[in-house]
User: Fold this.
Amino acid sequence: MKKILFGLLVILLAIILSVYILIPASLKVSNVIIVNCTINGTNRYLLDMAGWYKWWPGEDTKKTSLPDANTSFIYKGFSYRILRPLYNGFEMLAEHDGRKIKSVLHDFALSKDSVAIQWQYTIKTSLNPFTRWQQYRQAESMKINMGDLLVHLQAFLVKRVNVYGIDIQEIFARDTTLIATTQDYEAYPEVIKIYALIGKLKKHVIAEKAIQTNYPMLHVRKRDDGRFEAMVAIPINRPLPENRDMFNKRFVPWKTLVAETKGGVHTVGQAYKKMALFVEDYQRIPMAIPFELLITDRSIEPDTLKWVSVICQPVS
Assistant:
């Protein structure tokens, strides 16, 4: 009997000793992912908690109000809350089974369109072997949990439409010859005025027996004096005679960023801002003013929600 008890004691001591040997006094957990996104685009979603609702996979996270400093995001039994912002990241508090763990998530640029995101934490393990083992098991669970969340974030950020709100693509535009005209207005020009300019250009194209090769183009800018200048253009197959109201514009074939949008003037204006963010984030150089292709004939479609436009930005 004594031998059995002695044997059990030896086994117990061996198990306890193995806990101290296999589980270090300082336990570090870390996960890293690489994302094909810019550092600015990544930070806009990491540091803006309102954006978390768009990628966070936890179904039990309430999405009925804007998040604040006390908002917790929950995933598979773990609760996460941002404690304070850091440079290109933040400190986060995780809670699970009554235990609280502080972790740090930060990102850094690998190139202009590639970012590494690292999420890690370090804890001092207990001298109590049983508590030490529980801390190890919890660390393993949290590492898996953190890894799942980073994968969801990665899948979200690689899609430009998620980051910028519009699906930006790069094409090789071939509308090299345009006939154009401009007009000043006291306020943002109404649809009827825009299409009066387009109609004037179309009559000139028809009179010269030329061919329109793409949708009408529009660019409206607000001048320093508060007035608005509208430029409209029609792509054509050859240069046309000019007059005091109409002029030719020639371009070599150029790279163009394009994004389709549906909605009225406000929606289009927001799309221009999102395109400008993309150009800045990816360090592209604008080669001409941005403009919109008027896919929908707005003069015959009164419902602005049905207006389809393509925002275009020539770049190098």
